[in-house]
Amino acid sequence: MTVTPFGTRLRAAMDSRGPLCVGIDPHAALLAQWGLQDDIAGLERFSRTVVEALAESVAVFKPQAAFFERFGSKGVAVLERAVADARAAGSLVVMDAKRGDIGSTMAAYASAFLDPASPLFSDALTVSPYLGYGSLKPAVDLARASGAGLFVLALTSNPEGAEVQRAVREDGRTIGATMLAHLAAENAGAVPMGSFGAVVGATLGDLSTFDLDINGPLLAPGIGAQGATAADLPGVFGKAVRNVVPNVSRGVLKHGPDVSALRDSARRFADEIHEAVTA
């Protein structure tokens, strides 16, 4: 059976719904802000409300796996339902699990999220390449076979990331630039866009010294609560801004549990992003 690559599906979703990605991050403080208990019932109410409010309008959801895994198997079951419901309503799901390992362990991580037979099957997965880019090969291979995608940590928004990502190799290239080059090679020739993206923080300012033109998506956390705005995107991403998938989590989620308020907030962010990237 022929599968449509993630990059193709993502481009279509971004063009029809806009590029906004909304996080599903049910941390304890946010559950409390919603008036929910920090338990399975609160977790389920939170995730169900977010999906039901936004799944028919946003292009991408990004659930943070850790906030579900902390409740054990029952929390993972809630995550499974959230993923299935979001995809059934037409949204793509990027599982934010940041997996990274070697050999059979990496293959097992990939199977959990990128095998269509898995109950956690997602359209894409965030992965860490800092055991060497080659360690991601099992995930790359399975993503290609299943029509899924990857988002590789390249230039992250946390200040600590610079000590690794901005470190300079013997060839004079930084680690972050090396990861971008690997992704460009993975996406070579893909039309309309490759399936192998990078995580690049929207809070990082001028990145003109990096080649962000990887012919693939750039997942950009940092809009909203972390301080970046939609207006910052062209200055950070330059000519690659059309392939940016800006992620907003707390900026939208803080408006729950009111469904109308969640929708209004997501719509405002989507409109601001559209104006910024098409100006």
UniProtKB/TrEMBL annotation:
Pathway it works in: Pyrimidine metabolism; UMP biosynthesis via de novo pathway; UMP from orotate: step 2/2
Reactions listed under catalytic activity: orotidine 5'-phosphate + H(+) = UMP + CO2
UniProtKB keywords: Decarboxylase, Lyase, Pyrimidine biosynthesis
Active site (UniProt): K98
InterPro entries (alphabetical): Aldolase_TIM (IPR013785), OMPdecase_AS (IPR018089), OMPdecase_type-2 (IPR011995), OMPdeCOase_dom (IPR001754), RibuloseP-bd_barrel (IPR011060)
One Pfam match: OMPdecase
Orotidine 5'-phosphate decarboxylase domain sequence ranges: 19-265
PROSITE patterns: OMPDECASE
EC id: 4.1.1.23
Family note: Belongs to the OMP decarboxylase family. Type 2 subfamily.
Descriptive protein name: Orotidine 5'-phosphate decarboxylase
Organism: Streptomyces spororaveus
